[in-house]
Amino acid sequence: MKWIKEHKKVCIIIAIVVVVVIAIIIGVVSGGKKQTDSNEETATVEKRTLMESVSATGTFVAADEEKITSDTTGVEVLAVNVEVGDRVSAGDVIAVLDSADLQDNLADAKESLADTNEQTQRTKDSAKRNLEQAGKTRDEDLADVDTNIQDAYDEWQSAENNYNESVAAYNEAVAMANSIMDKTSTAYTNANSQVNTLKRQMDTDRRTADSRKSSYDRLVSQREDTIKRINDTYQDQVDTYNNTMDSTEDSGKTQQERIDDLQEQIDGTVVKATASGLVTAVNVEVGDTYNGSVIAVIDNVDSFDITTEIDEYDINSIAVGQEVVIKTNATGDEELSGTVKKVSPIATGSSSGDLSGSLGGLDLGSIMGGSGSSSFSTGNSNDDVTFTVTIALNTPSDKLRIGMTAKLNIVLQKNADVLSVPYNAVQTDDEGTSYYVQKVTGTNEDGTYKTKKIKVDKGIESDYYTEIINSGLEEGDQVIVPAAEKQNSLEDMINQSSSMGGV
Q: Are 277 and 178 contained in the same domain?
């Protein structure tokens, strides 16, 4: 008796299963027996909203989850400021890590950077002075190019003038010598000597003028090359300056990056909440050496998802965006709304075969799920492969908590305002090829019903009702329900068993 009390729910479930098995056996035994007229009941043809669904059981989880970590690793945990169940706000300090060694390293890095910056500045100043001097030299050399050409030109023209003067003096001397009639006189000799002297001077001036012209021509022809060489020399100095600037900047930049990295690590030793919510996990303790793992988990308890496992038989019927009807013990009879958010493409495990499954062809999930929806089995055996489906809760409620369970009906199809009858009012003909219902047309003198067989087509089916299409039935018509007594008896047994433990 003590074991029964401790395992109340298990006992209730076993009792329900036993009742269902007995009902199935009764149904098999009595299936061939014809119902008497006294057992016949009727039902009204009504317009209802019917839906087909996959039923399952899910667990509430936080819709948003923040995993708190730090980029600072290899340091000791000095303080942990939260526990599981604490509510925190974004920015609250979750944990504190040891930053002493990092602070020392930062001080050394800053000192080294200061020394580097001082040396860098001296190098930059020297490179700048060299570049400025190179610029002055270039400007002077470029100015000298045309100056030298002009000087060479002037020297050439001066030499040409000297030569022309020598030619004039020579010609004058020749004329004077030719004017002396006495070729033997001293005057003639002297004049002739003067002619020879002037001739030598004229020749010298000619050579000088030719040399000056050659120099001028050479400078003119070399002008562009000379300018290019001067500019190339200056560009070499510019390149040297730029390389010096880049190298010194790179050196300082590397050290600054080191300082920035150390500062980020120091900042990371104060671990703060990145979002507001409920602390659902704390994975470090004071004295631990932090290795980069998740320090804490913060769940947003203002919005929920529901995760469930759907077996391989039903998973292809599930799609993102489908409506989900949700019920929980915490919210009672209230129906909550949800939407399929994610369907895993990869199998996640095996189902355990629960009340959502089937027994002897009878859908237990349908029996336990209430009216208005049909439910396919979710987990027929322990070997069934399952897939995780995530459902977004659309109806907020302050009664819900993480870890609570939910009964789910994932709507596959919903037809509104359709003609329907109890599903056991629809019968199969002897050939098993068509369906019909017995429409009540009146009452006989003995109190039995007058009926007419009406051929029908079935639409979607819920737990208790079937959609009737392509028939002569109208809303308000009465039809025979031959299996009503058995159905009611089965429901009574289940309810009676449930009352044992208040399920």
A: no
